[in-house]
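chain below, 137 aa
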Amino acid sequence: MKEKLMKFFWGRYGIDPLGYAIIIISMVLSFTSSLLGGVSEIASYALWIISYVLLALEIFRMLSRNLYARRRENDKFMGIWKPIKKWFKLQYNRIKDIKTHRYFSCPNCKNNLRVPKGRGTITITCPVCKTKFDRKS
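prediction:
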C-alpha cells in the first residue's frame, strides 16, 4: 500500500506558499460562515461554499502534474506577497527598536536605513548607493 501511495504522489506538485494562503483563507471564510449562521443565512451559506471551493482548488493544485503552471501561479503570488511581508516586517522592527534606533529612507534609492538614536545630527551613508545625507537622530 505504501508503494502505491508513493507511486501516486510521484511527480505531483505538492504544497507551496500560495497553497498555505489558500488554506488559511478558506479556514477564515469557514469560521466567518459559522459566526454569521444566526445573523444571515444566505451570507453564511455563500461563505461556506466559497471556502469549500477554495479547498477543492488547493487539492487540485497539490495533486497537479503541471508543475510549470503551478510554479508560475506561485511566482505571481510571491511577487504580490513579498512586498507586503517586507512592509510588515519593517513595521515590526521599527516598533521593536523604537527606544534605541531611528529609521530613515535614502533619498536616492529609497532603501530603509537604521541608525542609533541620540547622536545629534549625523551624516548617513547609504550602503547600497553610497549617497550621503544629514539627518537628526
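Residues 123 and 134 are 4 Å apart (CA to CA). The chain is about 60% helix and 15% strand.
thats it, cya
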